[in-house]
Design a protein that fits this description.
Largest sheet: 3 strands, antiparallel
Helix content: 40-55%
Number of strands: 5
Distance between the termini: 73 Å
CATH class of the largest domain: Alpha Beta
Number of domains: 2
CATH superfamily of the largest domain: Ribosomal protein L22/L17
Radius of gyration: 32 Å
Order of helices and strands: EHHHEEEEH
Length: about 150
C-alpha cells in the first residue's frame, strides 16, 4: 500500500456506492478517474474526491506519479443511520432513515514483472551434456539386453 484515503459520514446509501466501486476496483488510477468523471451517478462525486486525495498523498509523500498507481483496495462500510420523522395519513408519523457510508480507498504501485536471465557457466553445460549422454547410453544398453532376453525365450 502506497497511499490511503477515506471519507466518512457520506449521505448516500452503501449499496449505491458499492455498485460504482465494483466498476473501478483494480483499475489503474487514470482510467478509474476518467470513468468516474463520465458516469452520471451521485456516488461518483464522492469516490472521485477520495481518489484524488489518495493520489495527492502518494505524490507528496513518495513522489510517485498517478500513471504508476492502481486501486488495490476500495470498500464501502455502513455508517450511522440518521432517523427522522415524517407526517403520514390519519395523524401518524413514519420514520425516514437517511443512510450514511464510510469509503476507504488504497492505492499501490503497478508491478511490472521482471524477466530474469540465468547465465550458466560453460563447465556446467558440458557436465550436463556428459550426464545426459551417459544416461542415454545406459538406457540403450538396458533396452538391448531386454530385447535379447525376449528373443531367446
Amino acid at each position: 500500500m502506497v497511499s490511503r484515503a477515506s471519507a466518512k459520514y457520506i449521505r448516500v446509501g452503501t449499496r449505491k456506492v458499492r455498485k460504482v466501486m465494483d466498476l473501478i476496483r483494480g483499475m489503474p488510477v487514470l482510467k478509474a478517474d476518467s470513468l468516474l468523471s463520465n458516469l452520471s451517478k451521485r456516488p461518483c462525486l464522492y469516490i472521485r474526491r477520495v481518489l484524488k486525495s489518495a493520489i495527492d498523498s502518494a505524490d507528496k509523500r513518495f513522489h510517485i506519479p498517478a500513471s504508476s498507481l492502481y486501486i488495490s483496495l476500495i470498500k464501502a462500510d455502513q455508517g450511522p443511520i440518521i432517523k427522522r420523522y415524517r407526517a403520514a395519513s390519519m395523524g401518524r408519523a413514519t420514520e425516514v432513515k437517511h443512510r450514511t457510508t464510510h469509503i476507504l480507498l488504497e492505492l499501490d504501485k503497478i508491478k511490472v514483472p521482471e524477466k530474469k536471465i540465468i547465465v550458466e557457466p560453460e563447465k556446467s553445460k558440458k557436465a550436463a551434456v556428459k550426464k545426459e549422454s551417459a544416461k542415454s547410453a545406459k538406457g540403450e544398453a538396458a533396452k538391448a539386453a531386454s530385447s535379447k532376453a525376449r528373443r531367446s525365450r
